[in-house]
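Pasting as-is:
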Amino acid sequence: MEKLYRKDPWSKITVVDKDKEAIKKISCLPVETVVNDGLLYLDHFLSGGRKADYIIPAVPFHLAFEFILSQLTPLGARRREIPDVAGVPNPMIGNTADLYTSFADFLCPEDCSEPLHCSVTGKHRPKPLFRILMNLPGPFESKVIHSQQLGQGVGGFRLERLLNLTKELKKKKYKEQLILVSTACRCHGVASALSFKK
């Protein structure tokens, strides 16, 4: 957050954390702080008509998917298991059945700028991971929210993209077709699945 503030001192940043002690540690910075659950706050924030450019999901779960699922649950949407997905690098299933994928099988340096050639291995990556996820073949429709690098070691996605995808899924009412919802940058991503009941 300090990096983001240094990059653009005129930006308005709101930090949400349910841990009061974590919030206290950054109280010296010129940012708005809120003690709350991130997902609940996002819903409250939007229902109040507030707007933001970017969401930076520094939480141990797939925030974009959980928000979309919370909005679609009244329409009958349910979390589903991720099917076998071919063609993603270094796949790993997490504790909540989300699929994590990354070109890296090592810890990336914080100052990586997501170049076309890996800053560690030097290997060329002709297709970014968010494009690979968009074009996945399978018995599902794949939707991807592109996460962008906002500063060294800091990634986020446009709130507008999250809201547009939520509206799109609400309008289509996919019945039982499986929908894969991913958030990904050029090198790393997470995917979760949902479908609607008949």
